[in-house]
Design a protein that fits this description.
Keywords: Membrane, Transmembrane, Transmembrane helix. This protein has 94 residues and is mostly helical. It is 89% helix and 0% strand. The mean pLDDT is 85.
Length: 94
């Protein structure tokens, strides 16, 4: 092997190592980006779940209010009916 072939071989080896380094750097960058993307998706899912749980809580509160209104009105209606039963009937004569 002469001097020119040795220099060419060194250049090829250095080129291969450089290309491998560039490829590994690009691969690591893609992995980091993917990891960040997955973390953001997890945060988004947690936020949506939290918002969903808040909506469920709001709906439960509304349901409690409606139940209270429905039961209070029935009690008031029953009281009014009992009051009307206890009163004597008055008929006006014409």
């Amino acid at each position: 092997m002469n001097f020119a072939e040795a220099i060419a071989l060194c250049a090829v080896v250095v080129g291969i190592i450089s290309l491998a380094g560039i490829w590994l750097d690009a691969h690591n960058t893609r992995l980091k980006n993917r990891t960040k993307m997955f973390e953001l998706e997890v945060r988004k899912a947690e936020a949506e779940r939290g918002a969903g749980m808040q909506r469920v809580g709001d709906i439960e509160e509304r349901l409690r209010v409606l139940e209270r209104i429905a039961t209070d009105r029935n009690r008031l209606l029953a009281d009014e009916i009992e009051t009307l039963r206890d009163r004597p009937l008055h008929r006006e004569t014409a």
